[in-house]
User: What shape does this take?
Amino acid sequence: MSDRLYIFDTTLRDGEQVPGCQLNTVEKIQVARQLESLGVDVIEAGFPISSPGDFNSVIEISKAVTWPTICALTRAVPKDIDCAAEALAYAKRKRIHTGIGTSDSHIRYKFNSTREEIIERAVAAVKYAKKYVEDVEFYAEDAGRTDNEYLARVVEAVIKAGATVVNIPDTTGYCLPRDYGAKIKYLMEHVDGIDRAIISTHCHNDLGMATACTLEGVLNGARQVEVTVNGIGERAGNTSEEEIAMILKCHHLDIQTNINTQKIAATSRMVSSLMNMPVQANKAIVGRNAFAHSSGIHQDGVLKNAETYEIINPKDVGIDDNAIILTARSGHAALRHRLETLGVEVDEEKLNDIYQRFLALADKKKDVTDDDILVLAGSGRTASHRIKLDYLQVTSGHGVRPMAAIVVDIAGEKFRAAAEGNGPVDASINALKEIIKRRMTLKEFTIQAINRGSDDVGKVHMQVEYDGQLYYGFGANTDIVAASVEAYIDAVNSFKH
Ligand code: KIV
Ligand code: ZN
Assistant: This one.
């Protein structure tokens, strides 16, 4: 019989820690439901003590999903554990994930402590969490740089205290795959009682080795992997869920997961769209070029027999070339069906609202794609914004000084301005700044066409600095200048004062 590998999804915790990727509770529920249908075993729903928003999200996700275990993160501190236990009250299956740094630098500089004291604190935290739940996972933060002998002592102690899962994070993404694999092997061979717990991998991608390290961990005995959709996460991200799922499917390693790989593409798109986090075009499995053969030799080979250059059938990850494309003639039922396929549930009122915006978009471009639909489904969030773009007219071209005239609605009152600039976006933002007179600076500006073609919807991501803080904005429009102004206004709407 093949071994079972548990998939622990931390998109909503480690993934969501990325600046600009924060979701509201409704969006988190949408992602959690999609993860459930993808077949993950554990959803790390948040770090409840970190904010009332995280606390509330863990509660609501616990109510919204049935099968996956809901996990809440804590430090090895009683008040964190109390808070996590309270947030997990409604979960049908629940887990507390507690832990502490174990590398010498964490022990010395973060905790000003000793190795012995850290073991005592680890054991105390596990025992404390056990008062609330049976399923307690312990993480040895910076285990990647913790020496193996000491790590084995920590792991042994926490298993003895009742930990059901022990997480070995390569927090800084430093390990070479062979060293990470050897670390897991060492633990499997030297820890008394190791068969009473599951060893988990948790790898970061700072050197681009997260997936390779995770795989080495699994090949050496780890039976849970901590991953995120699209590999999102702090800095260079975490191990990518879809890469691990497809490696195990393509190679016959006798290790099974519960992942329904046909849901991968829709999950990837949903997370990318809700988190405003574009997926790089050549990203393995889910990048838009992942299955695009452009060289003549490859195209010829693939047309003769797909296996010549394709190791994965795109249909296995849910990419269907024959998927229904929506056009201006598509009705409510087709739109609802498409939304459901993409994992978005809507009531009649929301469907009507999306449908009106869909018709407006379908008027401007021939085919409305899945990405467009996800943007439309998410764009309702700007409805409650205090500041809205009401009107924008731009003159630009060759030999013309770009000019923009703008009308902005602020809490129901209209404000008008006009300005010049070195291009249409610059002119529009100068005009906007005439109205919103704050000392703010545009720090980052990326434009991405969702699919192909000059009639495409452009997505704009922006970082705006104000009062020493960075704010993120997003806009999507077939008019790229309007999308840029929408993104700027989106950022301004999130200013704290
Ligand atoms: O990377 C890490 O060490 C973590 C732990 C908090 C599990 O995310
Ligand atoms: Zn992490």
In short: The chain has a mean pLDDT of 91.
